[in-house]
Amino acid sequence: MKKTTIKDIARELNVSTSTVSRALRDSYEIGAETKQRVLELAQRLDYTPDPVALSLLSSHSNDIGVIVPDISNPFFALVIAGIEDVAFAQGYHVVIYQSHDNYEREVMNVRHIANRRKDGMLVSLATGTQDYAHFKSLHDQGFPIVFFDRICDEIDTHKVSVDDFEGAYQATEHLIKQGCKTIAHISGPPNLLISRRRLHGYRSALLDYKIPILEDIIMSSEYNSPEALVITRKLLSGSVKVDGIFASSDNIAIGSHAAITEAGLSMPHDIALIGFSDLPITGLLNPPLSTVAQPAFEMGRSAAELLINLIKNPKNDRISISNVLRTGLVVRESSLRIQ
Amino acid sequence: MKKTTIKDIARELNVSTSTVSRALRDSYEIGAETKQRVLELAQRLDYTPDPVALSLLSSHSNDIGVIVPDISNPFFALVIAGIEDVAFAQGYHVVIYQSHDNYEREVMNVRHIANRRKDGMLVSLATGTQDYAHFKSLHDQGFPIVFFDRICDEIDTHKVSVDDFEGAYQATEHLIKQGCKTIAHISGPPNLLISRRRLHGYRSALLDYKIPILEDIIMSSEYNSPEALVITRKLLSGSVKVDGIFASSDNIAIGSHAAITEAGLSMPHDIALIGFSDLPITGLLNPPLSTVAQPAFEMGRSAAELLINLIKNPKNDRISISNVLRTGLVVRESSLRIQ
DNA sequence: AATCTTAACGCAAACGTTCCCGAAAACGAT
DNA sequence: ATCGTTTTCGGGAACGTTTGCGTTAAGATT
Fold first, then answer.
1. What gap in Å lies between CA A101 and CA B248, rounded to an integer?
2. Helix axes B164-177, B193-208, angle to 10 degrees
3. For B55 and C18, how far is CA from C1' in angstroms?
4. How far is it, in rounded angstroms, from Cα A67 to Cα A142?
5. In whole angstroms, what is the distance from residue A338 CA to residue A93 CA?
6. Domain named HTH lacI-type: which ranges (chains A, B) (predicted)?
7. Cα separation of B304 and A43, whole Å?
8. pLDDT for position B316
């Protein structure tokens, strides 16, 4: 029971493969009767064109690659859902790759995507990536690339992100307005642009409200809960007594949440806590976690739209669009002191 | 700056493509000097063989496909990590597909995998799947398939799962030993084998301990938190007062956790709660969630090993291995009444 | 010197398609 | 009857590889 090919149909009908090919594509230069017979037999034999052969011939595959650090992060899972939403509608298939925040893996993923003739790629950078040559060379050859969330300034292509500065500013400002006097920040890895921008927003808010910035209570963690738990323990056992924490992501905030509870402190009374992203679980914590909503699904949609546009109009190479999505403050009990 | 092919090398060196091909594969029938020159130029031109052409020729791709309902479920993310672990080491690349618990999507994914000449596939079934024809026909043609976690009895191939019955039995028994008298169960979708097996374990435990089974407090939910939250609300507002809940998965338990907290009830005092899977977040909840540990990573490893073995030895078609992994009870505060 | 090995390489088919060029009928028009 | 037009189709190259088989020239064997 081998897969039926165009040749099988041709042989059976005593016509050439070119005729079959044309008939299947409903070409005008094939007679109505022949067309009919081909279509019928193709139907009966359950013929589907071979994507690999097509790929070899045309140098494209109708699938797009997506590289994310980690699919278990619900934020990325949601972005991917958004990507699939528009890609699917446009007939593209999306192939997911994980870098595991590892530079070498990212390079391998990029190679795989290019070698397999994917039509384009969407990428959110790995924490470890400092060198962008693997993207640069492809981009210079005209390969469509769009960055999202964890973007970089070094490559001139379309990007979609949120206003990290603004979101961080609002979160910090919110804590200030709730009466917090000593607000700590647990940042992400410093080489990630989003980490720096959120840190910047935090600093600016404190500055604007004339609150002294204490470097001792600005810590850094990877974007995951277990490490954030450890870091927060360290923060809480430090010499400075904090009454508010702005975490650079929800995963970090979840770790902090556990550390605060563990230390027997109450939220928001002893410490007000706010995260970043609005992951689905945050509302289910006890107390529910305040956060900055990030339109993950929409980000995926936008990135996919930009990419597909890039694929279909390679000429538009010149102008690079940077789509900056708006964030929204989501206040829940973990930071709500004043009703 | 096109990709360099074997032809480019051949032309440059005034040899035939076959010579280049053989030289690159270090064939004995190529002279030492020629081999040297080819290797050198290939190096300099950064030649890499085209996987698509190879695929067309040899009918395999060195990729394996993985279909899961939802990558944002940390359990599946962990399984995939396990799969990647062994696949990577054996030179295979894993391509991830999501069925979104939708039958049609699953069928599409299967088609895509078969059409792209993937070497094999690993699948955890979608909730909606009742018909297995799309797997059956491929399997009959000798295509390597291994099921994991959400397996089905209808297809005779390798499978990896945990002892759902045993895990559920232990969880229920644990609640009984903690003094719970009225234990509810929130099950998963009934057409999933794992749901039925866990339900069965629950029933058996109650039976063995001579506790009456109340059908009114056996509810069913999809495997996600938001729906479980709603279902649990309904359970709590019912006429039967429960003092223990065994949830069929951690995602369900997280929803129940939120509902219990929301209702002003305390865990484990008013209600003892236990889930299934031991997702990373469960330990960070307040109070921490008891659960049944499921060796997700190991499950992925085992499934991948079975699949790769199947790929490399197509003859072993006959005997189908069912690897049943052991579960482990993880007792945390949400169910710990007796110290 | 005639024949046999062996080493070293080229030809061409094959994988499944598409598509550019013809080319053979059929048909009117002159 | 001759000549352009359509209409309808086939041949073959191309995409990038691998591989079975044929070929050539040198060296070894008798």
1. 32
2. 40
3. 19
4. 19
5. 48
6. 4-58
7. 35
8. 60
Give the number of residues written for chain B.
Answer: 339
- The mean predicted confidence, pLDDT, of chain B is 95
Give the pLDDT confidence of B144-162 residue by residue, as tens digits. Answer: 999 999 999 999 999 999 9
Is the CB of residue A27 less than 8 Å away from at least one CB of chain B? Answer: no
Place of tokens 């959120």: A198
- What's the CA A28/C1' C14 distance, rounded, in angstroms? 31
User: Amino acid identity, residue A161?
Assistant: S
User: What order of strands is seen across the sheet that includes strand B120-123?
Assistant: A322-325, A158-162, A145-148, A120-123, A63-68, A93-98, B93-98, B63-68, B120-123, B145-148, B158-162, B322-325
Q: How far is CA A122 from CA A130, A158, B202, in A?
A: 18, 10, 45
Instruction: Output DSSP code: residue A186.
Output: E
pLDDT tens digits, residue range A236-292? 999 999 999 999 999 999 999 999 999 999 999 999 999 999 998 898 888 999 999
Sheet with A218-220, strands from edge to edge, namely: A218-220, A183-187, A244-247, A272-274
Contact B226 A261 (CB under 8 A): no
pLDDT at position A337 is: 87
What is the spatial distance between Cα B224 and Cα B145, in angstroms, rounded to a whole number?
27
The A residues from 98 to 137 touching B (CB cutoff 8 Å) are: 98, 111-112, 115-117
Chain A neighbors of B115, CB-CB under 8 A: 48, 50-52
Helix (H) or strand (E) holding A64: strand A63-68
Q: Who among residues 258-297 of A has its Cβ near strand C, under 7 Å?
A: none
Q: Strand C positions with any atom < 7 Å from protein CB?
A: 7-12, 14-20
Q: Give the Cα separation of A282 and A279 in Å (integer).
A: 6
A-B contacts (CB, under 8 Å)? 93
The full DSSP string for B248-304 is SSHHHHHHHHHHHHHTT--TTTT-EEE-SB--GGGGGSSSPPBEEE--HHHHHHHHH
Nucleotides of D under 7 A from a protein CB: 7-12, 14-20
Min CA distance, B36 vs chain A (Å)? 25
Tracing tokens 């056996």 back to the chain, one arrives at: B218
Work out if B313's Cβ lies within 7 angstroms of strand C. no
Q: In chain A, which residue's Cα lies nearest the Cα of B4?
A: A115
- Site of tokens 């956060």: A291
Q: Can you tell me the mean pLDDT for A80-93?
A: 96
**What is the number of alpha carbons within 13 Å of residue B114 lying toward its C-beta?**
22
DSSP H helices, A147-276, are 164-177, 193-208, 225-236, 250-262
What would the pLDDT profile of B164-187 be if each residue is shown by its tens digit? 999 999 999 999 999 999 999 999
Cα separation, B221 vs B187, whole angstroms = 6
User: Global pTM?
Assistant: 0.91
pLDDT at position B19: 96
Q: How far apart are CA B191 and CA B201, in angstroms?
A: 16
Please identify residues in chain A, positions 44-73, with a C-beta within 7 angstroms of any atom of strand C: 47-50, 53-54, 56-58
